[in-house]
Amino acid sequence: MSYQKKYVWAALCCLTLGLTSCDKSKTTTPADPGSAPFTTLRAPAYPLVTIDPYTSAWSMADNLYDDAVRHWTGEIHALTGAVRVDGAVYRFLGKEKYPLKALVPMAKDQPWEGQYTTKAPAAGWEKPEYKPTGWKTGKAAFGTKDFNATAAIWDTDDIWVRRTFTLSEFDSAVYLIYSHDDNFELYLNGQEIVNTGAAARMDILQKIDASLLRKDGPNTIAAHCKNTGGLAYVDFGLYTNSAQPEIFQQAAKQENVSVSATQTRYTFTCGGVGLEVTFRSPLLPTDLNLLSRPISFVDYRVTSADGKDHAVEVYFEMTPSWAVNSPSQEVVVNEGKAGSVAYVRAGTTEQPVLKRKGDNVRIDWGYVYLASALPAQAKLGIGTSAIAAKEQFSSQGDLAASAGETKAKLTESTPAMSYVHNLGKVGSKATSGYIMIAYDDVSSIQYFGDNRPAWWKQTKHATIDDILNEAQADYQEVKEKCDAFDKQVYQEALQAGGKKYADICILAFRQSIAAHKLTQDSSGNILFLSKENFSNGSIGTVDVTYPSAPLFLKYNPDLLKGMMNPIFYYSESGRWKKPFAAHDVGTYPLANGQTYGEDMPVEECGNMLVLAGAIAKREGNANYAKEHWKVLTTWAGYLRENGLDPANQLCTDDFAGHLAHNTNLSIKAIMGIASYGMLAEMLNKQDTAKLYKDEAARMAQEWVKMANDGDHYRLTFDQPGTWSQKYNL
């Protein structure tokens, strides 16, 4: 488990561990007695629409209007909001940013051809005048077959690539975008502009000095990449800014932002009116149908701020960027009706269902929906141009006639999926409304070769039309459930650890839950599968499950079982033949078997045994462990043989790297063995219980002696003077 993914879960490690604390701090009373408790602690990113790892939109700015809304990968999920007050437009949500224009496109946008070699070339290979005699000519991208854009297979240690091109005109702002796995250096016309060292990253944007480029003459980009093991990849291109103008130039004034477990609330001043906007994702762990429902709400509430009446129109706009991996993919946008709910939706024309896997990728199958029950004086529509749609609202406070259906590539033109609500004259009495943002992913997970739809499709045999109508019908009920649950979570965390602790728990809640997809296997067993972020894109990783477990133990242990079931099945089915637990079951969304290149035998066995024990403690019985007793016994036996003084291997603390004699792993093994002994006792296997409990006690005494380093315990048994925090216990 790498450092990049640890930050996602760090706050969750403590979410419920302290719920028996004696801290008697009391929650503050919200300004609105009907609202849930919110924290104003500055979040690294504010959750807006959090449904699952693919439909996951955030504000990464201090003010909601300072930047575009973004997917957690950093790519734009365009969502714009504005109010028109007495003819003046105030943008409160998002910022108009359009896809960069390709000068020299990457392979993911348009195939390109270059020269390459896997044998070390002569000195000067990076210079424009170099003659690449003996080099091959091939289509980019270059890499292993694991990447969707790979055209030329590269499976050796090194590759050198040259790409020559001409440019007649370009903006003063020129950007290099590059992807590499692993160590990478890149030269533009002989000058080094990238040297990553040991790293593997995708779609890195870097502004370059445009004076390095030659107009009306040949330019050369030369790159070298070293594959240190596992996956390999090289792709690069040059881009410039889009010439499209910003229409909503005037921003509102943000007054406050606050976050609860399921809601993020903003308040603004927009000329003579006040605006409150709430983003609600009802991720209630106790209600799996609601948790799985792929819909988030955006509420808006407007009141006069100066005692006068004001003419107000509200505008929301999405683009099909929510349904593509790359803006070069063709999309189709159309509209429809689902009972009392109207919608516009967008998706790729290709619809490559479950064809794309990996880390820094976004869903490009299924359809994103902007939906509303359309109160009086409200409209939904499709515009062939997002610029024209904004201009129409700015001048008229309305939408132009809907296009009905349109196709486009976002790199060429950007369609608008727009909603307008004319509130009429707004005074001291609040006027409100809401929109729904939904995503129908058709099939969610491939589970050992079987394409599985989301939980809501299997348990309710529902269509997205059914779910949109259901969400509209129980809008108020769900809102009240979210308010009540938010109060419960905040109060329990507050009592456990005080206000600062509660604030951190609140910020982490949606981030943890929306990192999973809820489905079930063909036998009806719950599957709650996580995705790693910027760390191989693994699915169902055990050492992601482990630190996030307290949240699910507290609010619904069945979800924790859904995180563990794939690992149990992987071993019990005979697909995983090793005597220890797997690290993962694939690369999201394909759960067909471990793809991470390194095993973590002691780490993952210990994690699975401790978690099985925790479920038994939480439920008061060991029934779940009994279902998997054979494989738990195998893992416990492995820890008895190999856990006290572990061999050289990784643990979840990747900062430490590969270590032999790791004291943290040893503790994990001891706790796993103790958990197995406890489970045996609960199952009335007294001889086994005594054997393993005694063994855990003996190993613990040995550990204290072996790890002792005076005033602290060592990182490794054989290295005096080392130290590490025992945080992952």
TrEMBL record:
Pfam families assigned to the protein according to its UniProt record, in alphabetical order: DUF4964 (PF16334), DUF5127 (PF17168), GtaA_6_Hairpin (PF16335)
PROSITE patterns in alphabetical order: PROKAR_LIPOPROTEIN (PS51257)
Gene Ontology biological-process entries: carbohydrate metabolic process
Domain DUF4964: 37-105
Chain ranges of the Glutaminase A central domain: 498-729
Domain Glutaminase A N-terminal residue range list: 262-491
Protein name: DUF4965 domain-containing protein
